[in-house]
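Quick one, T. Sequence first:
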Amino acid sequence: PYFSNKNDPCVIISYVIPGSVYPVTQHPASENTLRGKPITPGYQSHYVVTTVTGFPVEGTPTSEQKVYDELVIGQEAQIVPAFILRVAVSKELEDKYHRQVIENSK
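Structure tokens:
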């Protein structure tokens, strides 16, 4: 969905060294949100399991629920690009795998 309207879409596949990971469970609208904050002291990254809306999964996800992994890295030195994957977009695949992207505004 993010690259379907690009002239020459591609994805960069990278190795990531997350270091010590802080598990995020707070909703971004909560009082103690990490949204827009630096990586928690003593950790090198944040990790959260989100739903299709981009918000954290509450409780244990069901097998029918689509979930996504989100990893926030503190320094670009923790990421090493390995491959560039060029993507050919077809209308059939775009329709089959399209997911709604909801932008969160503050």
